[in-house]
Write a structure and sequence with these properties.
Blueprint (H helix, E strand, L loop, with lengths): L6 H18 L3 H7 L4 H9 L18 H14 L1 H20 L2 H13 L3 E4 L15 E5 L2 E12 L6 E7 L9 E7 L5 E6 L10 E12 L3 E2 L5 H37 L1 E2 L2 E2 L4 H29 L5 H26 L9 H10 L8 H14 L1
Parallel strand pairs: 1-4
Antiparallel strand pairs: 2-3, 3-7, 4-5, 5-8, 6-7, 9-10
Helix pairs in contact: 1-4, 4-5, 4-7, 4-8, 5-6, 5-7, 7-8, 7-9, 7-10, 8-9, 9-10, 9-11
Length: about 375
Amino acid sequence: MNIELTIQQKMMCDMVREFAAKEIAPLDAQMDKDGAFPRSLLEKMIANGFLGVMLPRQYGGAGADALIGALATWELARASASVAITMNAHWLGADIICTHGSEAQKQKYLPQAAQNMLTAFALTEPNAGSDAASISASARLEGDVWILNGTKAWCTNGGLAGLYIIMAKTDKSKGAKGISAFIVEEGTPGFSVGKKEDKMGMRGSHTTELVLNNCRVNKENMLGKEGDGFKIAMQALDGSRISFCAIATGICEHAIAEAKSYAKERRAFGQPIANFQAVQFMIADMAIGLHAVKLMLFDTASQRAAGKAHSLDATIGKIFSSVHAVKTCLDAIQVLGGNGYSRDNAPERLLRDAKVLELGDGPTEVLKMIVGRTEINS
């Protein structure tokens, strides 16, 4: 397929690439060690307009479409998957408000999300992951206030965000159709951030529990209509799976660059190991898979930007790209040999970052069931 970017789109991608190389990439290893996202980096990203990239201009954003969002995520991930997943979670939450919020909600929250406040999305619970219909967080209406109770798990941007999109059941008898979505502001009575996860990878991103203890949310903070929550979540995850494909693309590019550089410099038996067919075949496999991942990313992001149905393609792209990212990082470690096993070199960190792509926003096995069922019934 042929993708032609406008001059403005190219300028935006160039800006992200330059900022990521200068300001983000040098911090990634330290973020991994510290398990924290530097406040100073977030402030620089805010100053450079990153929060509003995907939001409409009338609310203070840059008005970029899904294709540019995917390319921006790709550039961020090449420098740091932790930063890319942080921005993905923010753009996901903001997009939910933009797509499903009332005009009053958009006027109130989107300028903040575009200019100075991270958002987060909370669906998963300690006992409810891929089976989202089984969440137990509840919401009951008392007068003009919804009372939310429950615990959310694995919330990206927990503790950093100022706005949270939280899914809770307003009618437990209806299963998935009884789930509703709420905007919960940081500091809302009864809302608190719980345990911060000590993760294997993407350690620079904040992932936490959220605790709802008689959390009082104004009636007007429900997103969409009562019972729309599951539909809202599934539509949001379609976009997030495209972002996961973009993150996989960035990780793959970084891993390949590390492998190529090392193979050209490392000598064995009197010559660079890049001359050996075994090494060339591994790098060839990395490059072939990356080419396919890029085509899937461009295709699916372009479909979303054009308003076309893309759920199946986003799912397929997420499966393929996440599996290939893990394999690429393993092969990069193999090229580096013992040095690849050391935390002094990037491939070890990239592998840990890549693994979460096979787990988040639908694990590979569950998504294959969706693809298989769709194909059988088509």
